[in-house]
């Protein structure tokens, strides 16, 4: 197949899990003899190439033009509430990226250069307008990937405009691909056409995320960076520091953990709106000696080392459509504790009982339940090793990018046949 894909983030500009997903799956598409052309955002300075070949993938990054001054006259009231500064400017960048990408794909690549694509793919609302436009202009089958929803991300406090864009794209699409059955249920509840929705999980590269590639010295250095001794327990959280990730409840769970495991240390790595709140929370609860912050987006190589260094990885999200970080930790043979209430793809990833158990499900609203899950993991070295081995075995069986790419291509082929 010849695929055109619109995705907001793509290497070297990666913000979160969407960028990782897009990079990995498009690479697998190319390695199975498919052609992929990606349209993505340039950086703020416009310094990235506007057209290049990277790892066999053709990438287009339109140069931004600032339309923010004209937007207040034409955008909805709930977008205006984002503010005339960064909010409106960011929304203007999204619109310009979508329109310029669609125009270049339709007018230059298809009409002028005569390239014949089979499918146009758009990821989340951030690229949905471009996908809808391409379908309308040239009639390409449109696959709309939904990795999360505005309502879910904001716990119901988001933008009606963004939610309407999501729903409009869903109705225009020939196929809706989402990342878990929990998400499928959410989309149906939001009015997405049930008959169009298919599930294809995210994946991980188990050769890259392999505990055998990390040395004992590398592990020691990471732990020493946070002042964690050999006989201490390192509890790791990596992710955006926002409300839906439940990291504040994880901090509140620490007293329950310390009662049974006084040598436990919590390492929190990431960026987000809760940084100042988390600092104050730790000070107020007098747990500064037990909580180590690193307010950075760390590169993948360092992330792998952090998984290798920890004793348990914890992701107590309130809303998590999938959760690639869980797969990364499992692939690194680490036990995991995950939020399993509400919309939780992690509930589908992590086996919480039986012979194949690889972690624990907890109620992310309840700090004592989070503490119970972590304490259960920390009971013994043998238990942690058993859980870790089961986790990696599950990744190898169900969640490699090869398997995920194959399933996704099968879904695209179905709309081509129709």
Structure overview:
The protein has 418 residues and is an alpha/beta fold. The chain folds into 2 domains: 2-203 and 401-417, Rossmann fold (3-Layer(aba) Sandwich); 211-398, Rossmann fold (3-Layer(aba) Sandwich), CATH 3.40.50.2000. Helices cover 46% and strands 15% of the residues. It is built from 16 helices and 14 strands. It has helices spanning 17-31, 77-80, 83-112, 124-138, 150-153, 160-172, 181-189, 216-225, 247-260, 275-284, 300-309, 324-331, 346-349, 367-377, 381-398, 401-417; strands spanning 2-6, 35-39, 51-54, 57-60, 119-123, 142-146, 175-178, 197-199, 233-238, 264-269, 291-294, 312-315, 336-339, 359-362. Strands 3-4-2-1-5-6-7-8 form an 8-stranded mixed beta sheet, sandwiched between helices. Helix 13 links the parallel strand 13 and strand 14 (359-362). 46% of the residues are buried.
Produce a short descriptive summary.
By secondary structure, the chain is α/β, with parallel strands linked by helices. Helix content is 46%, strand content 15%. The longest helix has 30 residues, at 83-112.
Give me the Rg, rounded: 22 Å
In DSSP terms, counting alpha (H) and pi (I) runs of 4 or more, how many helices? 16
Q: What's the overall average pLDDT, rounded?
A: 94
Which structural class do the helices and strands define?
A: alpha/beta
- The CATH class of the largest domain is identified as Alpha Beta
Give the N-terminus to C-terminus distance in angstroms: 15 Å
Order of strands, main sheet, comes to 3-4-2-1-5-6-7-8
The low-confidence runs, each spanning 5 or more residues with pLDDT under 50, are none
H/E element order: EHEEEHHEHEHHEHEHEHEHEHEHEHEHHH
CATH topology description of the largest domain: Rossmann fold
């Amino acid at each position: 197949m010849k695929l055109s894909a619109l995705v907001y983030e793509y290497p070297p500009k990666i913000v979160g899990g969407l960028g990782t997903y897009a990079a990995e799956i498009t690479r697998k598409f190319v390695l199975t003899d498919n052609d992929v052309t990606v349209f993505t955002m340039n950086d703020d300075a416009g310094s990235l190439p506007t057209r290049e070949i990277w790892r066999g993938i053709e990438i287009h990054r339109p140069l931004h033009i600032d339309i923010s001054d004209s937007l207040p006259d034409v955008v909805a009231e709930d977008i205006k509430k984002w503010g005339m500064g960064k909010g409106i400017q960011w929304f203007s960048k999204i619109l310009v990226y979508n329109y310029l990408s669609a125009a270049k794909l339709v007018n230059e690549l298809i009409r002028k250069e005569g390239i014949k694509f089979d499918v146009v793919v758009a990821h989340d609302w951030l690229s949905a307008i471009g996908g809808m436009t391409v379908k309308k202009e040239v009639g390409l089958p449109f696959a709309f990937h939904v990795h999360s929803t505005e309502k879910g991300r904001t716990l119901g406090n988001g933008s009606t405009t963004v939610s309407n864009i999501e729903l409009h794209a869903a109705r225009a699409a020939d196929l809706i691909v989402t990342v878990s059955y929990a998400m499928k249920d959410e989309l149906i509840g939001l009015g997405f056409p049930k008959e169009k929705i298919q599930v294809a999980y995210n994946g991980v590269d188990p050769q890259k995320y392999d505990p055998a590639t990390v040395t004992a010295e590398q592990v020691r250095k990471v732990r020493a960076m946070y002042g964690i001794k050999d006989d201490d327990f390192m509890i790791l959280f990596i992710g955006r520091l926002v409300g839906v990730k439940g990291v504040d409840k994880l901090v509140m769970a620490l007293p329950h953990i310390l009662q049974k495991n006084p040598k436990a240390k919590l390492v929190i790595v990431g960026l987000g709106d809760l940084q100042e709140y988390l600092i104050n929370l730790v000070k107020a609860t007098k747990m500064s000696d037990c909580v180590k912050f690193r307010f950075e987006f760390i590169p993948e190589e360092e992330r792998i080392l952090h998984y290798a260094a920890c004793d348990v990885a914890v992701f107590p999200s309130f809303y998590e459509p999938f959760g690639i970080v869980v797969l990364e930790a499992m692939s690194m043979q680490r036990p995991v504790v995950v939020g399993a209430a509400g919309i939780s793809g992690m509930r589908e990833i992590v086996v919480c009982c039986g012979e194949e158990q690889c972690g624990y499900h907890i109620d992310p609203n309840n700090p004592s339940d989070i503490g119970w899950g972590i304490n259960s993991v920390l009971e013994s070295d043998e238990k942690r090793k058993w859980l870790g081995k089961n986790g990696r075995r599950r990744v190898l069986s169900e969640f490699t990018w090869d398997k995920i790419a194959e399933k996704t291509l099968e879904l695209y082929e179905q709309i081509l046949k129709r």
